[in-house]
């Protein structure tokens, strides 16, 4: 008796065509699913998608806005990707960004007339310190007692967001701000220079420099080697005498510091002040960015640009009555399909004939 | 009649099965895995009301045979006959419904569930709406009948190991198992718990069930078995009745009598003590005593073999020397320096190399390439670095040299090593460990799972190191390998060294007895 059945088996190596093809297919599928929902809500999806695309990439304003949004995504994406490399699930990028923004603001507000050459570096330094410390809090219990960092980093996000809210609604509220939840405008020395007359600011270079640094650290330094080994096989790391405890703490702190820098670049490059709702969830979207890019630093830049475009496109189509949550849904779909696609990259479905030894062979 | 036309032996078997005195008959069971024949035409049967011990060293095919009986594996050839009917088990559940219950060595319980919840888990006779009180009452009665003391309402995480085992047994009884297979049931028990378990087992056998006890402990066989079947290298060697059971004979059947040839060697072992262990004790992963007062030394240019059945402290021994496991008392010296409590990193710097038991789980990083894997031990060394950077050019040179000289077959130096065959993986590992020019090389089960050619190659590498004066601690469960390579043999049983023998005086029967925990006089 011969039956055929479908089984899922692990591929020995991810096939190279699958490596390119599956992410692309995942994105297409996510868009198709989004289209279904758009149609169900009574919209013409072709029209909406076209509008989103041209809105995000088709005009000078749209393109520069897309780049502006890709800056914090790149920086936080790189931050969390570093931790992910060591299988440390830093979900706290958002909170670390907020703490970085808080520290940078503190410097800026304390020295309203300071000049840029020392004020900006001080803001960079302190924002990174604050983000790093915010990540150190969950890193210590993780390293010493194995406390799950997903929960602790996630929870600390809300603490950081509410801390900033407290400041902008309370002690730091701009007295001349018509009661809006924001701080006073920074002095000119605390503003990152912009590119031409666009809103694109020097934070862009932070992203690019960090991506290069990320690559060098991960692939060319001893520390990066230890991160890769520990992430892939913690037993091997122990066996080779690597100090895993130290690396957990160090990687988390650096990861947090990078996310903190994103906060500085936002307050100093965009608003010139700290405000409520500073980030529309960049630190969370960063997780999607990191996964879609398979933790590759240069892919992070490209994916950030695409997801930034998705957000800008989403804002553009809001004028047609599309709810802004549509963008969150599309992002969710993307992650869902890409993670699903991951399964197909590493596994394959094969049709196997199954022979059953029956009772009839005597 | 059909039986008359068949050869005599089969006809006899047929008649026996027709007489229906066997609960289980396994006939000519063959099971092959890539590169190994785990079971080769094995015959095994269980009568009503008997305790049948299945004896054999690790790797002799006991677990495979019982996995076939309990529906985990399907045999390539042979037949399973339950109560006279031929069965093909599609799943463990199928086997359970046919009355075969297995209690695994590693319990399959859910800690956060109660005992009763664990017992009914996966049982499809249970109605959708649960009446836990009723179930608990039934369980309490059932367990009382066999003297298995458990409280059905208590949570599993609160139970001791012995109690958990009882839950597993009750689970199988509750499902109506007529044949109960216990895989090394005493391995995790205290002596008192063992006594109680044996009483329970006898009680269950009295009720007409067939009990199979997988073990490698001879005194247990003597204590409880009505019959014993000995497996060796995938073959069923003999089945003995109660009155035929004696230790000497069992030990001989278990380890075999092959005459082992001593390897020719050109040099005498050195006199310099490289490794010394003095009364070393440590705990195992369960927090119980893992090693007890281990004392021995390994000299330069000597292979010191550790023989014994796996799980008697081998892993703990390697880990404690290498600094991966905390030492409780005693001291370890390398080249006369006390290195007790050193970290693996310090051990590496002292010239200690380890070929761990678990190649892909510890020794190598499966998803990284050959270069990344080969520099694992010396990526910190100055010659590999430029400041904080790794000098990939030098690393690559070194790696291609090693790959060539150790004849590792790789498609590219960047491809993930998980794609390599077992033999190539082990060459890679040895290449890395040997290239560090160690004073002491610890090799744990270095040829496990390798084919004959790869085994030979690994043995030659080890002997080459011996000629160069390296002290080698070889831990293996293959007695032939131990006898072939070692200059001296220490036998590890239940965490203690039961004897140290010079290999030219080694008698395989004596080693067999020492492995079973019979302490012998130290010959050397």
Fraction of residues of chain B in helices?
25-40%
CATH class category label of the largest domain in chain B: Alpha Beta
**Strand pairing plus helix content of chain B: what structural class?**
alpha/beta
Structural domain tally of chain A: 2
Roughly what fraction of the amino acids of chain B lie in strands?
25-35%
Can you tell me the CATH architecture of the largest domain in chain A? Orthogonal Bundle
Give the mean pLDDT of chain B: 84
Radius of gyration of chain A: 23 Å
Question: Could you give the topology of this structure?
Answer:
The complex is a heterodimer of chains A (362) and B (524).
Chain A lengths: L1 E9 L5 H25 L4 H13 L2 H26 L7 H18 L5 H30 L3 H21 L33 H18 L1 H11 L1 H6 L4 H28 L10 H11 L4 H21 L7 H22 E9 L7
Antiparallel strand pairs in A: 1-2
Helix pairs in contact in A: 1-2, 1-13, 2-3, 2-12, 3-7, 3-10, 3-11, 3-12, 4-5, 4-6, 4-10, 4-11, 5-6, 5-10, 7-8, 7-12, 11-12, 11-13, 12-13
Chain B lengths: L1 H4 L2 H12 L2 E12 L2 E12 L3 E5 L6 H8 L7 E6 L2 E3 L4 H6 L2 E4 L11 H6 L11 H14 L15 H14 L4 E5 L7 H16 L3 E6 L2 H7 L2 E6 L2 E7 L5 H9 L17 E11 L5 E11 L3 E5 L6 H9 L6 E6 L2 E2 L5 H6 L2 E4 L3 H5 L6 H5 L10 E2 L2 E2 L1 H14 L16 H14 L4 E5 L7 H16 L3 E5 L3 H7 L2 E6 L2 E7 L5 H8 L9
Parallel strand pairs in B: 3-8, 3-9, 6-7, 7-8, 13-20, 13-21, 16-19, 19-20
Antiparallel strand pairs in B: 1-2, 1-4, 4-5, 9-10, 11-12, 11-14, 14-15, 17-18, 21-22
Features:
A: 362 residues, ABC transporter involved in vitamin B12 uptake, BtuC, 2 domains, 13 helices, 2 strands, globular, B: alpha/beta, Rossmann fold, six-stranded mixed beta sheet, 22 strands, disordered N terminus
Q: Overview of this structure, please?
A:
The complex is a heterodimer of chains A (about 350) and B (about 525). Chain A is mostly helical and about 350 residues long. Chain A folds into two domains: about 1-45 and about 320-355, no CATH class; about 60-320, ABC transporter involved in vitamin B12 uptake, BtuC, CATH 1.10.3470. Chain A is about 70% helix and about 5% strand. In chain A, strands 1-2 form a two-stranded antiparallel ribbon. Chain A is globular. The model of chain A is unreliable at about 350-360 (pLDDT under 50). Chain B is globular, with a radius of gyration of 26 Å. Chain B has 19 helices and 22 strands. The termini of chain B are far apart. In chain B, helix 16 packs parallel to helix 17. At the A-B interface, helix 8 and helix 9 of A face helix 12, helix 13 and strand 18 of B.
